[in-house]
Amino acid sequence: MVQRSQLFLLLVFIIFSAIAAETENQDYVALLSLKSMWQNTPPNWVGPDPCGKGWEGIGCTNSRVTSIMLSSIGLTGSLSGDFVMLSELKTLDLSYNKGLTGPIPRSIGNLKKLLNLILVGCSFSGPIPDTIGSLRQLLYLSLNSNQFSGQIPPSIGNLSSLLWLDLTDNQLNGPIPISDGITCGLDMLLNARHFHLGQNNLSGTIPPQLFNSEMPLIHVLLDGNQLTGSIPSTLGLVQALEVLRIDGNALSGPVPSNFNNLTNLIQMFLSNNKLTGPLPNLTSMNLLSYVDISNNTFDGSDAPPWFPTLQSLTTLIMENTQLQGQFPVALFSLPLLQTVVLKKNKLNGSLVIGTTHSNQLKLIDLQFNFIHHLDGKEAYNGTLKLEDNPICEVTGNLSSYCTVSLSNASYLTQKIDCESVPCSSDQISSPYCRCAYPYTGTLFFQTLSFSDLGNNTYYNILEKSLMDSFHSHQLPVDSVSLTLSNPITASSKYLEVKLKVFPYGQVSFNLTGISSIGFMLSNQTFKPPPQLFGPFYFIGDKYEKYTESKKSSRSSIVIEVVVGGSILLLVILLAGVYVLHTKKRAKRAIEHTSHFSQLDQSSRGGSVIKVKGVGWFSLKELEKYTKHFSVANEIGSGGYGKVYQGSLPTGQLIAIKRAKKESMQEGLEFKTEIELLSRVHHKNLVILLGFCFEKGEQILVYEYVSNGSLKDSLSGKSGIRLDWMRRLRVALGAARGLAYLHEFANPPIIHRDIKSNNILLDESLNAKVSDFGISKPIDDSEGSHVVTQVKGTMGYMDPEYYMTHKLTEKSDVYSFGVLMLELLTARKPIEHGKYIVREVQETMDKTKDLYNLHEFLDPAIGLGTTMKGLKKFVDLAMRCVKDPGFDRPMMVEVVKEIENILELAGVNPDANSTSTSASYEETNKGSSPYPGYPYS
After folding, report:
1. Secretion signal: which residues (predicted)?
2. E strand or H helix at 739
3. Rounded mean pLDDT of 539-557?
4. Domain CATH for 526
């Protein structure tokens, strides 16, 4: 009887679900209207139930259509006014369909729940309807790269929630609208972080009212318009600003004197205007990386005193700016400098290159000046351009410097350890030598933080960043390929990088895959490495080779005929599946117990493994999560084995550490790491999610920590630049994690292997201590130390522990002191036979500036900036490496002192690790209404 009632309830549930899946009639009618006006709609757009039968590109919630995402599928036609019947629509993305033309219907203002309106790279024209101002919940408005004309609707100012406004690359004209008490304006967008209005025909002045000190703007892009008048001083109040492009206009007058208040500015383009007055004062703008103020009519002056203070500078372009006097040799001492273009000025005297220049310096362009002598050219291997200087009139061996050569910077993704295979005429070989039909398009980078366009390292970082983003969103991408050739012909142009995205496990993408990739790039979910690449937009090509959907395309009549019999059959099948599932669960539980038993036996300790809140994963599951441990998912390797990125069915990213056969831990060490991490919980410790001990494998599953190891950042491998304040925060985070292990874990834990490779950085650059394989718990019965076998990493290891085999918490303190010196110097503890601790001890002189440690400090730390607390930090590091151990501080003392250093520098020790300059997108967790949004 019970079984019959359960069967009846199951039947009712199935019938109810079938009814609930039916699409709301008005939504169905609206989609039919769109289908009638479009060509090349997805083949499975048949039947009366778009939600229940899964029309591709259509997303539903509770039988209502909530999203339309159809990028790069070759749609042609126009927008139907009937789509306003989709009253629950939240996302409309029709990007990269060049065949979509005509105006946007005014009725779009009725889509009151719309959050994302993304029509990038189509052929829409006419004015932008002012009814868009009625979409009060809109967060993301991206209409760039169309043919919109007319003025920017002032009603956009009503969009009080708007975060992203992108109208780049259209034919918009007229003034930038501002409010006047009657009508709205863009000055009312108090939550916006992005004004992208470049490459239009906007005219008039830049209104002073457009900016105020409360605005969180990080991008202001007004380049390539017809703006006139002066630069408003109110722009200097927007202290969150990171990227400013107002080049290519007709702006006049002086640069506001308060511009040096923009201390978070990374890229500044003022070129090709009619600016006058003195050269802008860039003092204190310590994060500036790229500066172009060319082709203006500034007052003639000698080199400004701020030249050598811009320690982050990679590119200085001051062509035709009336610069005069002796060439500023101090400019060459900047540690990150790549390009200096000072052509068409009045510089004279000698050019002294010498040996003090940055080893990254690739171009010095001084054409059309008055240089008459050159010293130190033998020490310089980059490009030097001296055409039309007096020195070129002297006979000698300067011909190579006096003849202009064209740049041929290029890049092409290389094959990855594989032999090329012949592909059919229309297929392309991927970086892994697999023939496929890639999805192609062009990335347009509107600003950059580098100018060495021939440096492959930057594009390798971009490739990895793209793949990480595709994998984190569980998209079926195998690899990507980038192509760059003769990239920039003028400073007003954007860097164009051709992108090919290859499918995973098949020769082509299906339509859903293409739309998902297009959406990720169109709505800026993908954020390129902010330390190198600034804001961008993507224009995708039409994809013609997509695979047919496997979803059913039968007519509704056939469905109705078979539905009754299907339900009955389904009930029987579900009952059978339930029985099989119950048996499998029992079998898996037995296997689970068996694996714990194996682990316990191999540990030789005889004790039962004690894990709480840590899951057991089967090898089969982990193979699925990592695509069979594919090379594309590999994110790290070492003597122990390899680390792979994976994704759980919930979408959570994980890091999977798989030991090599020859480097497996003893069962006891493997057991120790699992047990320790299962009972320690702190924000500065990496979280263990689970493990696998099956078929001779030892695998640990951790939370995914997105920015890799501290070692990668210090070495430049990750592309993340850590300035002084960020390094202090990293030190504090790692110290807090260690202090927790020493003081609050029960029993206390000594890590035994603190080093930069075992400090990981999350998306906000918060430090997390990892790798507890050789950690040692200390019971009360063992007293203040334990005698044990020496383990650790040379260079970081406590000499006292090494000599006596007596392990204490002070052994970790010593390793942490070495780590602090590594943070200062970016050097390995032992390099070229020299030990950093001894080198610093012998060189330190407390009577001199920076303790006489100039030659040791990492240039990327921001030398020349105010490094508040540096001496206290060095003093603390040297106390940590004192011999004997009892002279060293406890970790809780170390934490307190680093907190004091940050407070003295005017920084809250508990604030988020990143500053606004850490990335060009400010993270605001939990504020986004749907996952994957740029601010989620």
Report:
1. 1-21
2. helix 724-743
3. 62
4. 3.30.70
Domain count, the chain: 4
- Is the link from the previous residue into 777 a cis peptide, with omega within 30 of 0? no
Which has the closest alpha carbon to 305: 854, 870, 864?
A: 864
Q: Specify whether 510 is located in the same domain as 596.
A: no
Q: Which two tokens stand for residue 367?
A: 């054409």
Give the structural domain span for 722. Answer: 709-936
Q: Which residues pair with 363 in a beta bridge?
A: 339, 383
pLDDT tops 50 at residue 596: no
Residues 150 and 192 grouped into a single domain: yes
In angstroms, the Cα distances linking 830 to 118, 328, 710, 794, 855 are 53, 37, 17, 8, 16
pLDDT at 325: 92
Q: Which of 517, 540, 563 is the last residue of a domain?
A: 540
Residues catalogued as catalytic: 753
Q: Where among 205, 226, 253 does a domain terminate?
A: 205
The letter for the amino acid at 827 is R
| Residues 870, 764 share a domain | yes
Query: CB within 8 A of 569, min separation 6: which ones?
Result: none
Nearest to 266 by CA among 921, 934, 826: 921
Task: Give the mean pLDDT of 696-710.
Answer: 88
Residue 117 lies in a domain: yes
Is residue 451 within 8 Å of residue 363, measured between CB atoms?
A: yes
Considering the domain architecture, whether residues 777 and 842 belong to the same structural domain is answered as: yes
User: Residue 552: which of 54, 63, 64 has the closest Cα?
Assistant: 54
In a domain, 116, yes or no: yes
pLDDT recorded at residue 42:
92
Q: Are residues 698 and 713 in the same domain?
A: no
Range ranked top by mean pLDDT from 185-194, 426-435, 576-585: 185-194
Is 53 annotated to bind ligand? no
Chain-centre distance for alpha carbon 909: 24
**CA 206 to the chain's CA centroid:** 31
Task: Output the domain CATH number for residue 627.
Answer: 3.30.200.20
| Whole-number Å distance between alpha carbons of 255 and 128 | 33
Closest Cα to residue 224, out of 207, 240, 194, 245? 245
Residue carrying the six token digits 């504020």: 927
Residue 344's contacts (CB-CB under 8 Å, 6 or more residues apart) are 319, 320, 367, 368, 369
Q: What is the spatial distance between Cα 127 and Cα 174, in angstroms, rounded to a whole number?
A: 12
**Measured CA distances, 14 to 11, 571, 578 (Å):** 5, 8, 15
* Nearest in space to 512 (alpha carbons), one of 77, 931, 930, 69: 69
694 and 734 inside one domain: no
**Count of residues in the chain:** 936
How high is the pLDDT of residue 925? 33
- Residue pair 220/247 in contact by the 8 Å Cβ criterion: no
Could you tell me if residue 559 is inside a domain? no
| Closest C-alpha among 316, 277, 312 to residue 293 | 316
Say whether both 820 and 930 belong to one domain: yes
Say whether both 747 and 857 belong to one domain: yes
Nearest Cα to 214, choosing from 242, 232, 187? 187
Give the bridge partners for 166, in sequence order.
Answer: 142, 196
Contacts of 722 (CB under 8 A, 6+ apart): 713, 714, 730, 765, 823, 860, 861
* 700: nearest Cα among 652, 762, 643, 651: 643
